[in-house]
Amino acid sequence: MPNICVVTIFVSDMEVAKTFYVTKLEFNVKKEYSKEIVQLQHEGIAVILQKCEQDSDVQYGTQATTVIALQSVDIEKTIEDYKHKECPTYF
Fold first, then answer.
1. What is the C-alpha separation between 74 and 29, in angstroms, rounded?
2. Residue 89 domain-assigned?
3. Hey, what long-range contacts does 53-62 have (CB within 8 A, 24 or more apart)?
4. Cα separation values, 18 from 15, 23, 79, Å
5. In this structure, is residue 90 part of a structural domain?
6. For the segment 27-79, what is each residue's pLDDT rounded down to a tens digit?
7. How many structural domains compose the chain?
8. Looking at residue 23, which CATH number applies to its domain?
9. Which of 18, 43, 50, 60 has the fewest CB atoms below 10 angstroms from its CB?
10. In whole angstroms, what is the distance from residue 11 CA to residue 15 CA?
């Protein structure tokens, strides 16, 4: 069975995406390959932000999509922390 080695998150605005992932979710940038490809610091699977041309209007739970879940020791505290940072949460 093959192993997943990269997760790519397509973003329509790289600066907004970097601000969100670095400032709000507290990832660090590992490497900027270009203005269109940025790798986030993450153990295990590489996490890449890649610029795309168009936004998507995904209705979570009703349309096919990929969802990334972040591990948490205390989910209720994590949700409250993200709300204070004005992060979207989907439950």
1. 25
2. no
3. 53/12, 54/12, 55/12, 60/90
4. 5, 8, 20
5. no
6. 999 999 999 999 999 998 999 999 998 887 777 677 777 777 788 899 898 88
7. 1
8. 3.10.180.10
9. 43
10. 9
